[in-house]
Amino acid sequence: QWTSTYSLLTAFIRYEYMKDYIDNGWNTPVDRPNVIVSTYSNYPKNENLVAALILQKNISWWNGTLQLLVNKPFFKCEYLGQTLHYNSVRLQLVTNHIFRLPHSWIVSPYFSYCNGGDRAAIHFEPYWNLSLNIKKLYIKDRLTVELFCDNFFHKNKYTETERLGRLYFHQTENYNQWGYRLTLSYSFNHKDSKSHGSNSVREAIDRL
């Protein structure tokens, strides 16, 4: 992995190689030519080329991060003796911000978008997520009232298509990854602390 940082921008490129990769494979029994058996197969390798750009800016009342991730797979799978290539580029865009507003209000919007891409023989349609976190501090920052709205447009779901020769599969996986949470917390042993975001770039790289 190669990583470089200049001013507000961090970039990295990573090559991933996995030997003896296990994924789905399809074959037809000799005595039953009209039957297709889906099972796990051992492939010689699976390769990915990952690149990312991370832009971060901190000022007194605002902390913002913009991340762009590109994943280029290099994978071949077998379908009834035929080699199929599933190598479309996966693109992810993530941005999150922290706004420190007057009267002890803190507002943190989060947005992510993915164009889908491929995983083996499965193609994912685009999906996205918008979340919002709102905090209000009271009693010299000891009491915190927090409202968190996760994926409130319900767009973080996975629509998949799979084409295998004359077969076509389509499904949507909706795990209901949305919700609202109201939290009240009080700190009896309050200590003043400030986060300057010095490790947020490193955390972003590790997460990607």
Task: Give a nutshell description of this structure.
This protein has 208 residues and is mostly beta strands. It has one helix and 15 strands. It is elongated, with a radius of gyration of 23 Å.
Q: What gross morphology would you assign?
A: elongated
Strand order of the largest sheet: 1-2-3-4-7-8-11-12-15
Nearest-integer average pLDDT: 86
What fraction, in percent, of the residue positions are helical? under 10%
End-to-end Cα distance, whole Å, is: 12 Å
The overall strand count is 15
Beta-strand residue percentage: over 45%
Q: Strand count, sense and closure of the main sheet?
A: 9 strands, antiparallel
Low-confidence residue ranges: none
What are the secondary-structure elements, in order, as H or E? EEEEEEEEEEEEEEEH
Rg (C-alpha, Å): 23 Å
Class per helix and strand makeup = mainly beta
Number of helices: 1
Mind explaining what this structure looks like?
- The chain starts with a strand and ends with a helix.
- The mean pLDDT is 86.
- With 208 residues, it is mainly beta.
- A 9-stranded antiparallel beta sheet has the order 1-2-3-4-7-8-11-12-15, covered by helices on one side. It has a 4-stranded antiparallel beta sheet with strand order 9-10-13-14, with no helix packed on it.
- The chain has one helix at 200-207; strands at 2-6, 9-27, 37-58, 62-74, 76-79, 82-85, 90-101, 105-114, 117-119, 122-124, 127-138, 143-150, 158-164, 167-173, 179-186.
